[in-house]
Specification:
The protein is of the alpha/beta class. Helices cover 35% and strands 21% of the residues. It is built from two helices and three strands, in the order βαβαβ. Helix 1 links the parallel strand 1 and strand 2.
Length: 71
């Protein structure tokens, strides 16, 4: 099984994230895409609470089979 792990702040998750991951999944024959939201990104002085970002990511990938969130 090929698994793609992708970490980001996802603040917010956007089409750039989703498009890049979908293209990588297709081109590389990836079986599972795992998104890893960073809890407190060092490079951002303010960020949306992790609970909200997790909900945004969950909503963005709800119709994508074999995509999941790692907590």
């Amino acid at each position: 099984m090929k698994r793609l792990l992708y970490g980001s702040a996802f603040d917010p998750i956007h089409d750039g994230h989703l498009g890049m991951l979908a293209q990588a999944q297709e081109q590389c024959g990836i079986d599972e895409v795992v998104l890893i939201p960073t809890k407190n990104p060092r490079w951002k002085s303010t960020s949306t609470p992790i609970e909200h970002r997790l909900a945004m990511v969950a909503k963005a990938i709800e119709n994508k089979p074999n995509w999941r969130i790692s907590r």
